[in-house]
Write a structure and sequence with these properties.
Length: 658
């Protein structure tokens, strides 16, 4: 190329040559990575995946070859050099970015760390050196305004960035939140710097730098299409953070239009779970197509249908899937098929069973029924209904407390249910697409505070006190025993806190869920007397009949939350993202932050991405609560449904402290 070629013509030729090179690379056969294969720097042995950047009017292509090494090739648009090795070994494609004065090449080393190389002339490179960050996938890089930005994804899916003005010294890593399912793509768009990525929920998200292309400050992850999730407007005050889909576990259709649906909308929900069947009437659906349509219209993109509690044998589940729904008479299978054809992008799940230990079923019987059902029905309906997946409901940490068999008691029940017994059925964790876990807490969803309970209560999470004092026991064990996605299909806090305070603990728990947790269903909004809460003289039930405040439809006085305070408070704080999703989280909004923060001790293994141990909390259990407003009690009594509407549903005991 003549040196006096106009710059615009040079850029034109570079663009054309780059397109030609991309076409040639696409036509070349792809060979899988084979450790130790010998590199050959020839024109026809181009690596499969490349990253390109410019320096001094020359384009540089960086790639990983079959031997794991990073190689480089350059072109000015007319001529191309051969591939040359830069040394090092990586198991993922490299990323490169330039500032106009230098080029940085980034790669994930075999140790999982981020490594960087640098050149200022395109001929000599300074050598690889480690920056220390741990990567779960390939890095991404962008050059903008004289800076280089490198983006990495950790093993929890969280995104981090470093910047450099000279390619040698880099800033400390800064968290950009997450989680993402894969490495992001960074682009300098006009005067702005933008990241694009796929969340673990399948939705597409973008993140823009607040100061344009400078990248010194970042806004909030915003959904962009994906599975048809609504996109908030730019001036909307509440932007959904990139965490997980939140919704409600609906247990009946009582008060649907006048209470449940309006309260549900306050959450800006992304999920709805319908407890469709109960053991008392296992083929009579509790919800119709109208309620399901309403939930989807309100924002749900994940719909979970639960079977009857113990009617989970293949023939029983088959009958439930074919039972006609109130409304237009379609079956669940027909409804799911029609929704799959309408382009709405809604994902449907069937959760098989419900808390088998509390239903009195042995773990071996529950295991066999779950595995027989997925063996007999799974392949057929996975093929005919691509938007339909299978979830197994797991037990609580109680197990069968009175059983003489050690493997049936406590957390050993879960281990037995998840085990492979060598009978050819495999394991529940391997056969099902996801697992459903319930978490209930006495005071929060992470720990309980002894000051609020009798001295005889156990707090070491090894006794038989139920879930209330050890909310994450089943979740933690499931994370350690399986690699499947997890849905929190029921969650509740049994506490007399006001919703202004209780909502903060709910939201904190949501943000601290592991990246493998895909959804979070709060319990519940039906105003069902079976779970109508209360305490002492305000409890509407007889003494000893398990009065509680787990439900989202109950206020701090044990009466109906007629003003939707619970759903509104959780929706407001969750959407505002009360803290940055970083290892050293700090509150961004004090009104959404729990008062009892944390201890600096190390998080348990395999626990949430930002898990921390709480410090002792200064809560005065004897402090009087404000008096119950008379209008609240009146409104609550007026909204209670007749007891006959709910007879036979459940009679379950949520983590009662006995």
């Amino acid at each position: 190329m003549p040196r006096n070629q106009p710059q615009s013509g040079r850029q034109y030729y570079i663009l054309v040559a780059s397109l030609i090179l991309m076409i040639i690379a696409a036509l070349l056969p792809f060979s899988p990575t084979v450790a130790g294969s010998a590199p050959v720097a020839t024109e026809v042995s181009a690596p499969g995946a490349t990253s390109a950047t410019d320096l001094g009017g020359v384009s540089y292509l960086f790639a990983r070859r079959d031997d794991g090494g990073v190689w480089v090739r350059k072109t000015d648009g007319l001529w191309y050099s051969g591939w040359s090795p830069l040394g090092g070994v990586t198991d993922a494609p490299p990323a490169a970015a330039g500032s106009g004065e230098f080029i940085n090449v980034f790669a994930r080393g075999t140790d999982g760390a981020l490594w960087v190389n640098r050149t200022t002339d395109g001929r000599t490179y300074e050598g690889w050196r480690a920056l220390g960050d741990r990567l779960a996938s390939a890095p991404a890089a962008v050059g903008s305004r004289g800076r280089v930005h490198v983006f990495t994804r950790d093993d929890q899916g969280m995104i981090w960035t470093r910047t450099s003005n000279d390619g040698r010294s880099f800033s400390a890593p800064v968290s950009l939140g997450g989680p993402l399912a894969a490495a992001p793509v960074g682009v300098a768009e006009g005067s702005g710097l933008v990241l694009h990525g796929q969340g673990v929920n399948g939705h597409l998200y973008t993140l823009a730098a607040r100061d344009g292309a400078g990248g010194a400050g970042w806004a909030t992850w915003r959904p962009r299409g994906g599975l048809a999730q609504p996109i908030p407007t730019l001036d909307e005050a509440l932007i959904p953070p990139l965490t997980l889909d939140v919704g409600i576990n609906f247990i009946s259709a009582n008060n649907w239009q006048n209470y449940q649906l309006p309260a549900y909308g306050r959450l800006r929900p992304g999920l709805a779970k319908f407890s469709m069947f109960y053991d008392g009437y296992p083929t009579v659906p509790a919800f119709g197509t109208g309620e399901i349509d309403d939930a989807i219209a309100a924002g749900a993109r994940t719909i979970i249908f639960r079977t009857a509690e113990t009617r989970i044998a293949p023939d029983e589940v088959e009958r439930q899937l074919h039972a006609p729904l109130p409304g237009d008479g379609r079956s669940l299978l027909d409804y799911i098929r029609d929704r799959g054809n309408d382009g709405s992008g809604v994902a449907f799940w069937i959760e098989v069973g419900n808390e088998p230990d509390l239903a009195g079923v042995s773990p071996l019987v529950a295991r066999y029924s779950l595995l027989a059902t997925i063996r007999d029905l799974g392949p057929q309906y996975r093929a005919s209904h691509p938007n339909f997946r299978w979830m197994a409901s797991l037990p609580t940490r109680n197990g069968l407390r009175e059983s003489a068999v050690p493997e049936y008691r406590g957390i050993a029940y879960l281990d037995t249910l998840l085990s492979d017994q060598g009978d050819g059925l495999g394991s529940v964790g391997a056969r099902y697409d996801a697992l459903g876990v319930h978490i209930y807490g006495a005071d929060t969803l992470e720990q309980s505070f002894p000051a609020l309970h009798a001295p005889s209560d156990l707090y070491d999470c090894t006794g038989s006190n139920g879930d209330a004092l050890c909310p994450n026991t089943v979740l933690d064990r499931t994370l350690s025993r399986t690699d499947r996605p997890i849905f929190i299909t029921e969650a509740g806090i049994d506490s007399p806190m006001s919703w202004e305070l209780k909502a903060r603990y709910y939201v904190e728990a949501m943000h601290r869920m592991p990246a493998r947790v895909r959804g979070f269903a709060l319990f519940t909004l039906s105003l069902d007397p079976e779970w109508y809460a209360g305490a002492g003289e305000r409890c509407t039930k007889q003494a000893g009949s398990n009065c509680s405040r787990y439900a989202l439809d109950v206020d701090e006085w044990g009466t109906v939350d007629a003003g939707f305070a619970g759903a509104s408070a959780i929706g407001r704080c969750y959407q505002r993202s009360p803290f940055t999703l970083a290892r050293d989280a700090t509150p961004a909004d004090g009104s959404c932050w729990p008062p009892c923060r944390r201890d600096a001790s190390t998080p348990p293994a395999r626990r949430p991405r930002n898990a921390v141990q709480r410090a002792t909390c200064e809560i005065d259990a004897s402090a009087p609560r404000p008096p119950m407003p008379a209008e609240s009690a009146t409104a609550g009594r007026a909204m209670l449904p007749p007891a006959s509407n709910t007879s036979g549903r459940g009679n379950r005991r949520k983590g009662k402290i006995e």
